[in-house]
Amino acid sequence: MTSTPLVPTEATPSRASPLQVCQVVALINAVTGGPAYSVTQLAQFLGYGGWDSHLFTLNYPKLGPQVIPAGVTVHSYDTPLVGRLLRGWHPSAGRALIHLAQDMALIHNHGLWMFPNLYARRAATRRGCPLVISPRGMLETWSLGRSRLRKALAWYGYERENLACATLFHVTSEAEAQSVRDLGLKQPIALIPNGVDLPDPSQIPPKPDCLTARFPQLAGRPWLLFLSRLHPKKGLDTLLAVWAGLVKRFPDWHLILAGPDLVGYQPQLERQVQQLNLGEWVTFTGPLSGDDKAAALAHARLFVLPSHSENFGIAVAEALAYGVPVVTTRGTPWAELETHGCGWWVENRPADLEAALAAGLALSDSERQTMGAQGKQLVHNRYGWPVIAQQMGEVYTWLLQGGRPPACLVA
To answer: What does each C-alpha distance from 9 to 13, 15, 71, 72 come to in angstroms?
Structure first.
């Protein structure tokens, strides 16, 4: 187990006895993306807001380093191969969480279908403290249709009881709230989106040299950027089919597919690129982080996320934070792209995706910059981590102390 002591910051208000809360998430290895960043950032900014913030997780060393949040006590347990194969089975870590929970005022579990979710419920039940559950998109129709047998076993083995024991659900979209209600669950639901890091202008690479040195084919060309996991859920096969038609009209543009391949999907996509003769217009970069990621976001002209299903789509928020207009599908909860004039939100059909991409590619740089500025403003006002952590803190306070229900509760 590794622990990082609580580090006071200037943003942390004084509190004589801060309440201890613990986030539980299956893994925070950086290459996995998603919750590895959203959960750790939530824990970090709760700490800045005066909570004594803890995080319990399993560690899979073969997946690379963990994302360790500042100011958070991290309880991390190395997991053998058998534990990974059995969806996070780690009985000794589960017992450790029960012991840890004796000092916690609240347990907040993130994700479903893995043993750490069971450990969170057992710990909260034994402690007698509130249990908040964030499904993290794992109750959406598309996700439920994958690995049906495994999920059926988990449902009857522990997940049904986990959900029944929740004191409150946290969701990141109205669609996800409806998924909770569709299961007949009656507990309160808090609708709080994920947060996003607002880039520091002084840290943005002025030129994309770090990327073009590694991938010379990107130099001097406008980029259409996809930055997420390479996974069938993300609609990349449809994107490539659409791209084959668009490059005839926009031959200067280049599609960057950036992200980790955790399920062995990239070879299938590479074969599709070859079959469509797209080698000159598509580059797989693998996962990007640090300056490479910042350079990709800062110098992309347009961003695309053609997913079948997303409970939030953090990559959309990240692109908007860098001032990049976004094209995404209605499998994501991003209607705000149209209401705030910073992108396209279209039906998940090839013709609709192609039309939206064509519209974005045809814009002048100044028109895209105007859309990007509107996206930046949206993220700053609604999705900055200080705002998100404050809302979550209000939910925790209500669960622990009562009083007026927070505004983020939904019917």
So the answer is: 9, 13, 8, 12
d(CA 130, CA 109): 11
Residue 409 dihedral angles phi and psi, to the nearest 5°? -70, 140
Place of tokens 């969806």: 87
| Whether residue 49 is found in the same domain as residue 117 | yes
pLDDT in the model for residue 17: 57
Q: What is the mean pLDDT of residues 80-91?
A: 84
End-to-end C-alpha distance for the chain, whole angstroms: 40
Strand segments, DSSP code E, in 309-363 are 326-329, 343-346
What's the domain range around 177? Answer: 20-195+384-410
Q: What is the DSSP letter of 156?
A: I
242 and 179 in a common domain: no
Tens of pLDDT, residues 140-196: 776 777 788 888 898 899 999 999 999 999 999 888 999 999 999 999 999 999 998
pLDDT digits (tens, 9 = 90+) for 203-218: 888 899 999 999 999 9
Q: In what order do the strands lie in the sheet with 282-286?
A: 282-286, 254-258, 223-227, 302-305, 326-329, 343-346
Instruction: List CB contacts of 325: < 8 A, sequence separation 6 or more.
Output: 302, 303, 342, 343, 344, 360, 363, 368, 371, 372, 375
Structural domain count of the chain: 2
Model pTM?
0.76
Same domain, 250 and 146: no
Q: Which residues contact 45 (CB under 8 A, 6 or more apart)?
A: 195, 385, 386, 388, 389
Tokens of 31: 């290459």
Helix (H, G, I), strand (E, B) or coil at 141: helix
Same structural domain, 374 and 392:
no
In Å, how far are 18, 41, 55, 62, 185 from 119, measured between CA atoms?
Answer: 24, 22, 13, 23, 21
